[in-house]
Amino acid sequence: MHFYVYVDCKTTGCKERQILHHDEFDPSDSEACTMAVIPSSWEAQCSACRQTHRYSVDDVLDYPSDEAPPPGFCNKF
Ligand SMILES: [Zn+2]
């Protein structure tokens, strides 16, 4: 099982999702899920609309997935 931490782009109409952190865990072991250490705020440029926005921990969302991250993916945090 994979676990993703992400923010959505703040540009109106832009649906780009920026994945910040990926973890892989065993669903049968609840202790195995580790959370990323998210800074209180940071700036990031969207790869789709090229706008730079400031994000905070309040903007962070997460979701579990069966899908592995794309090749070459690196955790931002
Ligand atoms: Zn964008």
Characterization of this structure:
With about 80 residues, this protein is mostly beta strands. Helix content is about 0%, strand content about 40%. A three-stranded antiparallel β-sheet has the order 2-1-5, with no helix packed on it. The chain has a two-stranded antiparallel sheet with strand order 3-4. It has one domain. It starts with a strand and ends in a 12-residue tail after the last strand. It is built from no helices and five strands. The protein has strands at about 1-10, 15-25, 40-45, 50-55, 60-65. Bound molecules: zinc ion. Zinc ion (ZN) binds next to loops. Zinc ion (ZN) binds near residues 9, 11, 48, 49 and 51.
Which features characterize this protein?
77 residues, mainly beta, three-stranded antiparallel β-sheet, two-stranded antiparallel ribbon, 5 strands, 0% helix, 39% strand, binds zinc ion
